[in-house]
User: What shape does this take?
Amino acid sequence: MESDESNRPSSSSTEDPYSPRQELELEVPAKSTGSDIPNGGLHAWMQVLGAFFLVFNSCIIAHHFITGLVNFFGAYQTYYETALLASSTSSAISWIGTVQAFLLIVVGVVSGPFYDRGYIRTLIILGTIMTVFGMMMTSLASRYWEILLAQALCVGLGLGCLYVPSVAAVSTYFSTKRTLAVGLNSVGGSLSGTLYPIIFRRLRPSLDFGWTTRIIAFIVLATQLISLTILRARTIPNSPRALLEPAAFKETPFALFTLRMFFFLTGLYAPYFYVPIYAERIIGTSPDFAFYLLPIIKAGSFVGRVLPPLIAHRLGPFNTLLPCLFITGIIGFA
Assistant: This one.
């Protein structure tokens, strides 16, 4: 009896969901059934809060929304064209945001297997350090190549580390309430897309570009610490996925969905980068109104981040997604 008890695994590591050792000692069930998913409760909704702030500062493509610092680059695009990088072309400046968005997705592909192995805290810590450091270096930059390295490369790599945890963590805590949880999670992008451009606009006249960017970096740091404190992975796969699975592309639905996402992402960010400068130079609106078009777009997306997930819960994600894409395409061409 004594030897049996000594060999019995201790459950102390799973009693406290916020234990620092929980990440390494997480026990993964052989099969996940509906009965073992919390689907609510304080701990599950705290994960929504933690992921909310990841979305607040990062960018998410899955679940049909984009967020955070990437589409906030539209505010920087306008400032760079009219002030700091006035000698550079619009196309050259837009490469800063383009590289940032590219790294977000590419690094997300690489960070996925690390998340599957339980390194969610490592990804959040690394992503936070690189994002904040990149923003701080951007505040000191004055040349195109310096901003490209800091804001595009460093911040892009950091956001790529935050991408997978912000998408994957919440969905494992919910079953029937999953669409609602993901919708509330995505509201973080709507809030940050509204607040960050306004903060940038209001602070820059009284402070210089450097201190405005540093204050934004401090906001990122403070909100990321909330995510780091409370966000935990509930389960990790028994067999972490490979970095690349060519066999998956033999499935026609998956291949078609991947192709659709490719073309979707090809034109996704252009409006967010160019709306302010287009409204001011081509349409002839006032500089203030042109700038606030970006926060207005993001504030309007609040309904789009909550309502479609509720509809998708009844009609299915693809039945909800297709009409939304069709309407978006018509409005875009209009």
Summary: The radius of gyration is 21 Å. The mean pLDDT is 76. The chain has 14 helices and no strands.
